[in-house]
Write a structure and sequence with these properties.
The chain contains 5 helices and 3 strands, in the order ααβααββα. It is an alpha+beta fold and 108 residues long. The chain has a single domain (3-106), classed as Winged helix-like DNA-binding domain superfamily/Winged helix DNA-binding domain (Arc Repressor Mutant, subunit A, Orthogonal Bundle), CATH 1.10.10. Strands 1-3-2 form a 3-stranded antiparallel sheet.
Length: 108
């Protein structure tokens, strides 16, 4: 599996996606802070964070007794590059579909 496939797989879980969204919005947070507001236990949050770390989506920094987490910019850049590379394909497909629908609507 490619690195990007691991990234998408890790983000495919709603809890992990929510964790990454929160980190993107609020910046670096501790595991305890991330657990607040989630309907899961602290050990479950730790397991989700491990999956995100293994996939290269987040990084962990030790600050005394706390584990601090942040999104790796490289992961966001890889997702952005993949999306941009596929944008042209999808846009041209949608343009063709629009033309076809217009032609169909003009037919008697």
């Amino acid at each position: 599996m490619t690195a990007l496939a691991h990234t998408f797989s890790a983000l495919g879980d709603p809890t992990r996606f929510a964790i990454v969204e929160r980190l993107l919005q609020e910046g670096e947070l501790s595991a305890g802070t991330l657990q607040q507001g989630l309907p899961i236990s602290a050990p479950a949050v730790s397991r989700h964070l491990k999956v995100l770390r293994t996939a290269g989506v987040v990084r962990q920094r030790v600050d005394r007794q706390r584990r601090m987490y942040s999104v790796r910019p490289e992961a966001v850049q890889a997702i952005s590059a993949w999306t941009a590379s596929h944008r042209d394909y999808w846009q041209s497909s949608l343009d063709r579909l629009e033309r076809l629908l217009e032609e169909e609507s003009r037919r008697p």
